[in-house]
Structure formats: C-alpha cells, structure tokens
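Subject: two folds for Thursday's group meeting

Dear M.,

Sorry for the delay on this. The cluster queue was jammed most of the week, so I only got both jobs back this morning. I'm pasting them in the order they finished. Each block is the input sequence followed by the predicted structure tokens. Could you check whether the formatting survives your parser before we put anything on slides? The first protein is the one we discussed after the seminar.
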Amino acid sequence: MAELPFKNTYDLSPEQLLALDAAEEMMERLDLGAAETAFLTMLEEAPDCIPVLNNLGHLYGKLLSEFEKAVEYYEKVLQQEPDNAWARDQRRRYLRYCSYD
C-alpha cells in the first residue's frame, strides 16, 4: 500500500481505511442512509473503532439531529479516550438539546 498522507493513529487496516473513506464520502454527498449503514457495519466488526464512533456522532448530531444518539457515540469515544477534546466538545454541544429524565 502506498504511504498514507496522514498518520494512521488507530492502526486501521487498509480495508477499514477504504470503508471509512467511502462512508465519509457518502456523508459528504448527503447519502445519509447509506453512510449510516456503512458506519454501523464497520462498528459491528470493530465496536471500539474511534474514527467510526466519531463519524457516527457527527452523522447523528449535525446531519440527522438525533442528539441523544450523537451523545451516546461521543460517550463511547470518551470511555476510550477521556482526553479527546473533539468528542468532549461535541458531546457538550449536543447535550444541550437532549431531554433526559
């Protein structure tokens, strides 16, 4: 495989990188149902994959306005990476819109 233009921080396999790229492109094209399916399929194979969890948080929060789901995915990121500033900030943003009993 050619050298990546970024550091593969999470040691994703080439297949995971391709799937992640394809799902992100779907999200950019606003093919949200297909993107959601792709991310959830990836999550079944690797339930702790932080890039997928972050993307699902973004998909549910920003694009689908399903704020509780967004918070859940960002919580999963923070369980693994408590210092993840992106996930912490996004979780805080979407918590404002949630109504927990």
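Second protein, same layout:
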Amino acid sequence: MVFSMILSGLIPSFLMVGLGGLIRARLSEGAWQGLDKLNFEILFPALLFVAACGRPISFADVVRIGPSVWCILLAALLVGWLARRAGPERFLDFAGGWQTVWRFNSAIALVAAQTLGPNGVGQMAVAIGMAVPVANIFAVSALSRGGSLSLGQTVKKVALNPFLLASVSGVALGLSGYKLPAPVMAPLEMVAAAAIPIALISIGATMNWKALARLDLFNGYLNFARLILVPGLVTLACLALGNSNGLAPVLIVFAALPTASAAHVLAAGFGANRELVATLIAQSTLLSAATLPLWILLAKTLF
C-alpha cells in the first residue's frame, strides 16, 4: 500500500524527465536556458506563493512545527558541507549540488503524508510552509557566495530573490488568514501549474543520462546524506526526545524526501553547473522510490 502510493506519486515525474530526454534535440541550448529563466523568474515563484498561502497557517502550528523543520534543514546543510573536498573545485558548482541535501520535493511530501493518518497532510503542509523560506535563504545565500559577491551584494541578492520573495509573502498571507479573491488567484494557479512539468522536462533535457546510474563519491555522498543520513539523524532525535506532540512521523518523512526539482531552476539562475544538479535530482528521485517507503514504515512502526 505504502510502496504503491509513493510509486504512483513518483512515476509521473519519471515520465516527464524521460520526455525531456527524448525531446532534448528539438530545442537549442539557448532555448532550454530560456525555459529555466522563465521558471526561475515567474513560474516557480508563482508555485511557491500559491502553495504557501493555499492553506491557513496558525501561529500555534508555527511554534510547534517551524523550529523542528528548521533544525532539520540546518542539520542537512551541515551534513552536506562534509562533501566539499569531494565536490567541484568551483564553489558555485559545489553550492548547486550542496543545496540538494536540504531542498525537498513538496509534491511527493504531500503524497507521502497521506500514509500517516488523518493529521498527516495538514502537519506536512505546515512543515512545507515553514521550511520553504528557510531552505531558499540557505540555497540563495550559498549560490550567491559562490558567485564571489561581496557581503552587501549577497544580502541584496538573497533579499530580492524571486523564490524567497514568493515563499515569504505566501507564508505571511497564510498566517494572516486572508484569502485572495478568486479572480486574482485563478491566473496565479494557472501559471503555477506549469512550473513543475516544465522544470522536469528541462531536467531530462539537461542531465547526463549516463551518469544517472553512476554514483561517484560526491554524488553518492549527497544522495546518501539526503535519503539516509539526515532522516536517520532525525529518527534518533525523535527517539531521544519522544513523540509527545505527535509530530515524529511527519518529521521523519519530511527529512527523508527526495530533493526538489526547483534546485535545478535555482542553480541555472545563478550560473551553476546545470547538468550536475539535474543529474542529482534525477538520482535522488529514483533512489527515493526505494528509501522513502522504508522510512514511512519505520516511522509508523516506531511512533
């Protein structure tokens, strides 16, 4: 049951990535880069905003869930840094891969949360809303520093990043409880709906398909950290601290998610190695078909 649900959530992504590989030659390199730019500036920001403000967020949920997911993101960032020596020499290219350790696939998160009981989806939605701005701050900061910018330029780049602006404004709107009028939300939702399919097709067109089945030290460690090490650390922490607030299963599953397809869009926007990030995303998504159901089963068994 759990395996079939996760696979049903992953298969459409695999098919879209495969489609990108098949039609790669139909568009020029410049055209693919233009699609990435469109996703970076417009489509994914719309998706982040719509996802963040789509459900009302209570301050009680922020206090309960927010600090926990922020600690998970920080732990993933620190664990991923250990791959620095094995990574690309240029820091910008390393930062593009490094971000995949703490970035997460929101769509798969909501599919996986359905296996955790009646409160699972609601808790996961709050976790996503609290995690997206922080994950983007980490990623944009790392990629900005990789571009050899000054501290002031980095702060400006982070503050004006479309991903960050969209996610923070969406969370703020969700906290306020105000709902945008339907005529305003409708076009935003239409634009947002195009973000993930275009990103997945671009990943398939960009990635090195031969490298998909070949994990070198750098790629192997980042995938191990994303799918095994970080959820393992979170499981140990939940066992040590207990499950008094009932969040342990959601936190374990959140920590075990494959990385986000938006990681490729963000890396391309900063000029990092697009092929490396696209390959890491595909590897993470493929491997999670085996690892994520196991973490779900473990979380439900222990808690």
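Two things I noticed about the second structure. The CA atoms of residues 152 and 158 lie 10 Å apart. The first helix runs from residue 2 to 22.

Cheers,
T.
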